Amino acid sequence: MSDSTSTEEGFTGVDEPTVGLSGRRLVATLYVIVVGIATFTGFVLGVIGPRDLDPQLFGFVDMPPTPLGMAAYGGITLATVLGVLLVGVMFVSSRYVD
What pTM, to 2 d.p., does this model score? Predict the structure, then answer.
């Protein structure tokens, strides 16, 4: 008689990774998607070209109101704001692990 539990096909003794996204990977994916949407929206606003459009990156860097300038403004601004918040959350979560 053989012991079927130890010779089971496909059993490696190693936990298989679960299918899906981990928490950090999900947040990073959402971050990239949201920054991409902001960049695209800035580009669209630059194409439309409303009057009196004078973007200033971080309050002191003048950006051109062209499609590329507006895309850079939208992407950089949101990436910086969300990036600082995400780094803060990651720092706090790594310091206070249950």
Answer: 0.69
